[in-house]
Structures are given as C-alpha cells and as structure tokens.
Design brief:
- The chain is an alpha+beta fold and about 290 residues long.
- The chain has helices at about 5-35, 45-55, 55-85, 85-110, 115-140, 145-170, 180-185; strands spanning about 190, 195-200, 205-210, 225-235, 245-250, 260, 265-275, 280-285.
- The protein is built from 7 helices and 8 strands.
- Strands 5-4-3-2-1-8-7-6 form an 8-stranded antiparallel beta sheet.
- Helix 1 crosses helix 5.
- The longest helix has 30 residues, at about 55-85.
- It is elongated and about 85 Å long.
C-alpha cells in the first residue's frame, strides 16, 4: 500500500532545496568572480558574509511562502494526475504545473510595471526551474527524504566548490589575467571616472589633463591633486601579463608605472590607492571611438 503523503514534509524539503539553491548560487558566483577583472574597490568579504547570515531567516520565510503558494499545489495536482495518467506522467507534469501556477502573478506584475518581455520570460523560466527542483525533490514518499536531500544537495554544493577551485588552479576554468595590450593598443585617449584623461600618441608622446596623483597613504574616495602637462610614455611587456607596465613621464607629475587590467575589449591602466596591498585602484579606461553615422 502506498504511504500517505506528508505535505508538511513537502514544505520542509522544498524550503531545504531553496537553501541549497542559494548556497549553490553563492559558490558559482564566487567562482565566476575569480574569472573577471577586479573592481576598483575590493569587496568587503566580512560584510558580505555577515549579510548572508543575516538574511538566512528571511530566505527561509520567502522559501516557505513560495513553497506554500507554488510547490505544494504543484505536488498535490501531480498526485491527482498520477491517479489517472500514471506516476511517470505525473512526474513530467510537475514543471508544467509550476509554470502554470507562476504565470498569473508574474504577468500581472510585468503588466503593472510595463516590464520588457524578454526579462520577464527569463525570470519566469528561472523561477519555474528553481521551484520545480523543490517540487520534484519533495514529491517522493518515505522516511528520511529530508536527510537524503540534505546529503545529496550538500554534496553537490561542496563538489561544485571543490571542482571549481581545482579548475581555477589547473587552468581548466581560466582565472582572470590582464590582456596583453602592446604599444599599438595604448595609442588613444584614456579617461578616469570623472573625465580626466591621458592621451597617448603613436610617436611616444602623451598629454595629461587633470589625472590624479595618489600618495601611498591616500584613502579611496578622497580628492587627490590632479596633474596636467605633456611628456613621453613607454610600454614594458614584462615577464607575463601581470607584470606589464606603462611608464608616463610628464614634468611635474610623479606617477609610478601604471599596471594593466580590464579585458581585451575594455582594457584599463591603473594605479594602486593606499599601498600595493590595499586592492583599491585608480583606473583609466580607453575611450571607444564613436561609430560613424
């Protein structure tokens, strides 16, 4: 005889799956960050960790409400379909049922806010996939379901972090490294976030307009003095992409050698702010030429 379903267990397992999905998202995001250029100001990991712990309770409340509104009805409806169409058909219908239950609130919200169709469809699809995972995991009957879900889900999260880290170490998942720009790519205008510029010419000349001079003790967010003038520049390839340097010699301006960052499509040159170990950077981005009309 088939064991009677416990819908309380369905809610518990669905909320647990929601927590595991959040944990997996955090791990994937951390791995992705390692493949991207560093920001001007490094993340405050202590504050981020504290924020994650502080929203753990809110995540549980949201997960419970979503499970109550969408997962539990989808599982109940799949039980009804299973009696008429068979268990296999009932399993296959779970994502369709979740999508159908999500459709009215998603489209009402989208219509009220005049949201664009593509982002709405992407949100609908991702929400359907997330909640369907909870419904499919919670649908089996039997004791020990929550424990099995926790073990297998925890193993998936830990395995993703482990293999992702191994991929970064071995190069299978390429970690970020600066682009090799070369002298030809330097020619042009490079500007900071306030519009101050360095303009390099192919003959080795450079013109500075208000470019900041940071001292070792400067803090990010201060207003350092700007420097302007004309002079010369040179490019040093270094041993590897990380050791590339751009030297700018403008009388009256005391910049150390500029490092290279960004990407091949959006290269940057940068100075450290607050010392080499601070992780904070003052960056200039190469201006893109306007497309002809």
């Amino acid at each position: 005889m088939r064991q009677k379903r416990s819908y309380g267990r369905v809610l518990a397992v669905s909320v647990l799956v929601g927590y595991l999905e959040v944990a997996l998202t955090v791990v994937v995001a951390l791995l992705y960050v390692r493949t991207q250029p560093p920001p001007d100001t490094p993340p405050d990991w202590d504050r981020i960790a504290a924020a994650l712990f502080s929203v753990a309770g809110l995540t549980g409340v949201i997960g419970f409400l979503l499970s109550l509104l969408f997962v539990l009805p989808a599982v109940a409806l799949s039980d009804l379909l299973g009696r008429r169409l068979g268990e296999r058909a009932a399993w296959c219908c779970v994502p369709l049922l979740v999508a159908a239950l999500l459709a009215p609130p998603v489209w009402v919200f989208a219509s009220y806010n005049d949201a664009q169709t593509r982002p709405v469809l992407l949100f609908w699809a991702s929400a359907t996939a997330s909640l369907s995972a909870g419904a499919l995991a919670a649908r089996p009957r039997g004791e020990g379901l929550a424990r099995r879900v926790a073990l297998w889900g925890g193993a998936l999260v830990a395995g993703t972090g482990l293999f992702g880290t191994l991929g970064l170490v071995t190069g299978a998942l390429p970690p970020y490294e600066p682009p090799v720009i070369g002298p030809a790519a330097l020619a042009g205008t490079w500007s900071d976030h306030t519009g101050n510029t360095l303009t390099f010419t192919a003959d080795g000349r450079v013109t500075a307009s208000g470019v900041a001079e940071h001292s070792p003790g400067d803090t990010w967010g201060g207003v350092p003095p700007g420097c302007s003038g004309t002079g010369t520049w040179s490019y040093e390839p270094g041993r590897d992409p990380w050791s590339q340097r751009v030297r700018v010699d403008v009388p009256g301006c005391g910049w150390p050698a500029w490092g290279v960052g960004g990407t091949g499509r959006e290269p940057r040159i940068h100075q450290s702010v607050g010392g080499p170990g601070s992780g904070k950077r003052y960056q200039l981005r190469k201006a893109t030429s306007a497309s002809p009309r």
